[in-house]
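Predict the 3D structure for this chain.
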Amino acid sequence: MKFYPEGTNPALCRSFESIEEIKAAMQAGIVIEARVIMCDSEHNLHIDLGIIKGIIPREEGAIGIDDGSTRDIALISKVNKTVCFTILGFQREENGNVCAVLSRKAVQLGCKRGFIDNLREGDIINAAVTHLEKFGAFIDIGAGINALIPIDMLSVSRINHPAERLYEGEKIRVVLRKREPHKLTFSLKELLGTWGENAALFEPGETVTGIVRSIETYGVFVELMPNLAGLAEPCDYLFEGQEVAVYIKSILPDKMKIKLVIVEAFAEAAAPAPLTYFVRDSHIPRFDYSTPGAPKEIITLFD
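Done. Predicted structure below.
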């Protein structure tokens, strides 16, 4: 069975028109997705299945809820969002109505055993950004199971906050950087190209847009791509995150340097641009960012 980040596979979304359909889905053990319409005072999640209501009991809401390793905020925050589940059975409520009993935890356990536990460092998977903190981006790596991309692994070009690179709900590709007994750390920057691959997209004499990432006394670093930045002359009127137009004066592969001239500065801050991936495989053994003969060698080893 293939597992997906919640809400990224429309084929899993179902609304049932009969009890017989729901029973057939239960017997087949298929994974279904639907929107959470309410989290009640006991932290049970209520789901609209179409013909009847479904309930994910609190202890079936996620791995770790029963032993306290996962906090209840993980359930509360799912209201109005899509979650995955299987159907366990049926129960009659106090008002006499029949509802389906669902389990999100069962899908997560299956995802962990059949997919996540088999990942090795260097494996590349699809993920979805769930929320952003100053220290990094939390991602759904399958069935609502979360992992972290630290901020320094989002790109070679430095940023002050993950919101400068990603947005919540964004579908991305990530590589497993480090596996620990109870923690998986992912990275993005190794998929966004080497210095040479990024620099090949530009030529001296071109004027392009960039983003101011750092303002120093000796110059201004302007990001042209998430993994590529150049240096312009000092300017007093700029701010970090600002979008600018720059003239490419020279590209120096042997020194891994690009010299820029700021042509115009725009008033607004730049929004995160769509990511360009340079790796299409499902595994990467190593990442050599530096150009041959460059004074500084930047390498990530996975295998």
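The chain has a mean pLDDT of 95.
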